[in-house]
Amino acid sequence: xxxxxxxxxxxxxxxxxxxxxxxxxxxxxxxxxxxxxxxxxxxxxxxxxxxxxxxxxxxxxxxxxxxxxxxxxxxxxxxxxxxxxxxxxxxxxxxxxxxxxxxxxxxxxxxxxxxxxxxxxxxxxxxxxxxxxxxxxxxxxxxxxxxxxxxxxxxxxxxxxxxxxxxxxxxxxxxxxxxxxxxxxxxxxxxxxxxxxxxxxxxxxxxxxxxxxxxxxxxxxxxxxxxxxxxxxxxxxxxxxxxxxxxxxxxxxxxxxxxxxxxxxxxxxxxxxxxxxxxxxxxxxxxxxxxxxxxxxxxxxxxxxxxxxxxxxxxxxxxxxxxxxxxxxxxxxxxxxxxxxxxxxxxxxxxxxxxxxxxxxxxxxxxxxxxxxxxxxxxxxxxxxxxxxxxxxxxxxxxxxxxxxxxxxxxxxxxxxxxxxxxxxxxxxxxxxxxxxxxxxxxxxxxxxxxxxxxxxxxxxxxxxxxxxxxxxxxxxxxxxxxxxxxxxxxxxxxxxxxxxxxxxxxxxxxxxxxxxxxxxxxxxxxxxxxxxxxxxxxxxxxxxxxxxxxxxxxxxxxxxxxxxxxxxxxxxxxxxxxxxxxxxxxxxxxxxxxxxxxxxxxxxxxxxxxxxxxxxxxxxxxxxxxxxxxxxxxxxxxxxxxxxxxxx
Amino acid sequence: xxxxxxxxxxxxxxxxxxxxxxxxxxxxxxxxxxxxxxxxxxxxxxxxxxxxxxxxxxxxxxxxxxxxxxxxxxxxxxxxxxxxxxxxxxxxxxxxxxxxxxxxxxxxxxxxxxxxxxxxxxxxxxxxxxxxxxxxxxxxxxxxxxxxxxxxxxxxxxxxxxxxxxxxxxxxxxxxxxxxxxxxxxxxxxxxxxxxxxxxxxxxxxxxxxxxxxxxxxxxxxxxxxxxxxxxxxxxxxxxxxxxxxxxxxxxxxxxxxxxxxxxxxxxxxxxxxxxxxxxxxxxxxxxxxxxxxxxxxxxxxxxxxxxxxxxxxxxxxxxxxxxxxxxxxxxxxxxxxxxxxxxxxxxxxxxxxxxxxxxxxxxxxxxxxxxxxxxxxxxxxxxxxxxxxxxxxxxxxxxxxxxxxxxxxxxxxxxxxxxxxxxxxxxxxxxxxxxxxxxxxxxxxxxxxxxxxxxxxxxxxxxxxxxxx
Lengths: 649, 470
Fold this sequence. Notes:
The complex is a heterodimer of chains A (about 650) and B (about 475). With about 650 residues, chain A is α/β, with parallel strands linked by helices. Chain A is built from 20 helices and 20 strands.
């Protein structure tokens, strides 16, 4: 018996050791670390540390050093020196950023294979009280910047809530942390939240600090071809061929509408089989490939070039397409993939000739008419590609954009059964790195109406992560600044995209606590009320309201008594900061503006749904606040493409 | 020469008497007395001022009087019988509201007035002024006019609103016909083509001059004397002045206040209803045991005397109040205000006052059977008891899952329960249990939030948490 117990204990210890041993090998979204209470990065406002960069530091490695030095100085008053790998002063400890000589010397066996080619994964390790962060040679060294933000969080509690609200602990002493050798891998390697405010901020600093890349005006994606570019950018019927004849006339089989006189993103479509004529298809692919080459040559920085379908519900249904669909295509996107495979092959051949060594990737949409993946089920019921022809070229990236998804329910809800099948299907068609997702977290037509779907969006992200999605783009309100806790959404989505296992309620509460400060209790109650009301409305009254075009602005979802209680929380929030008006007027004005931004949404509901209930003087007061704060916050739209509503006419 | 000296002495005597009377606070009172340029025959007036006795045509007057004859001598004396001020006002006969031109009073006779189908034309050949004789409602005072082509031989037309309670408070909007601008004090705004109808509207609540389409033109922050302007609490007297007149000119006034001018051939001399303005606040929300005080109000009619006005409040049970009362019922109280003029035009407005319950329901939630489960276990939802002071309540039981999802489990509308947690159109089969339980699909921390609220959305919340392990 004793022996048996010893064996069990020994096994338990072994398992325990194995678990410990495994830990450093796991890829996690956060460094594995221990605080060293007896060692200091900064002590009494002074430091023996410098920041070390490679002699040829990449853009974001340099910025990482600047950010680290800036925030440490803000927190401690101590200005850290940044040196290059060949000028490290004798006797100094350091934080090494990038593949420095110091890093190579400390870890001679590191190949960094785990981070190669990634944008965000980074290796972090401590040795002899020095800290090393290194990423891939790609993407301008962004991964090192993310590593710096992570260790700033450990060192000084750095948390970036918003450009006007950055948290860190102010202290003359900063303890050192010991990092186990670990590769930090975020849930998604590349992340974008496309809101107007994020990318309106000068130099994208706001977006960068939220760890986002700029999809439409950044460096990673070629800005010319990004979006719905197939007809809009690459080839329109009105474009002239070599003989000076419109392509629409010389090759009507290339277009859904060859006679279209104009070009818009939401009109027309290429015929991806060229009417079923292989020769014509080859020519069409050649013409597009030559165009693509021009864009590749014009933009030497970009990695991603899009060949995005038009933004319509329609695809070609000519005999050629119908036949191909049945024989080998499986879905409209199957035809698109086959077509773009051909374009990529031709483009790559051209690049080999004219820019050998240039590495680019090509993205298409799986959106609206092409959302359904070209799959069938095998004998076990698993999804498999419909045919060999629709397997994407290794350099193709598929942007799955489930615009019809019900964002109020998880993927496994019956409300999202079709979308879930599509996600699983795309997972079967694409390799991990090939699948990207373009999702939505806005109420497209009602920018002023509060809604809540961050919880299900988090669950969607978890499903995307399981499906191996490499890039997640979430479209927020991208054509205007907005109310309805827009800053909170940007923060939560940023954190979730980095680590989908985080809890949105906790993230939101933390944000509210830091962003609204003295008013946080009232604003948390307001937020909770919206969460609860949406949960009830979605499940009991209108499950369909969870789609991005859902209708929630009505007297059922927002009864007058509820709106008045929303007001009561705004007034309570104002009461809570009133004491600052005399003692700290700057802070008072900042918090007041933040609170009033949410009050704008209440004014909208009151004026649209309950205008008759208010006196002229009450309406005048609301008009004054609406006018002032929509201007203050530069809120200029009521819905996508819609003007600011004139509530007071 | 002797006669001339006598006249001079007489004038000095009068001046001395006036100066003697106008000392201290009484001087202030005199300075602020605001009277119309003339009285209208048959109209009733209350020109009483505080701390002064009023006499009209030598007869003591306790309160209101009706203008008769051709002039009225209005005299104010202090408590000791000493004269404070005296005014002689002409009495104009508007022919029981039928002579609309007579309302535009011009003692000099320099302005001729003709009523047309859609306007009253004011014609003049020299700088001149007309005063409109009734007190106008400043809440929404329309002053619409058109310039007549070839007859705009004047540089400017000014609209001066004089506070009917304090003659020293005046606000003047001046339209420059050449520059096509309107100004007040140092502010100026562009106007559109003067050949179209110029629709100026002054709104006292916002103290703004607007266009008819509600586009704001000017914001009145100071009055004509440069003092901070606080609005017109008791109506305004309007004068229209023409300056820089270089030849025969005409300006057609098309609207004043809520009254469209013209209607020469109408069957009734006045077809426009009165307007009412509450001069003290009317709450939109009240609470149990509050005392409702009836709001003060002013009634205005552009042409006719107001003959009736009232404000009543109807309680949810139908009880009608005309005097202050204590709120004793939840629900909607209907405040109705009515006014009628001498021509039978009636105005009626209704405003709802909500008496809201502010007491949240009482909620008691039972404890979890366990705070630790395994994935796949059925988790029993603890029951609750709830009550509300008004009887009706709602309870939403909301589940916060470890993966951040939120699911409504049940909605209880005063005992009528919607069991969302068994709704297979909402949730997956792996989650659905029965009406009082669900299956734990994920490991991690779960929270059940109970939100009880009543019709007024008074809300009380309780939460329970438990862990689910693999």
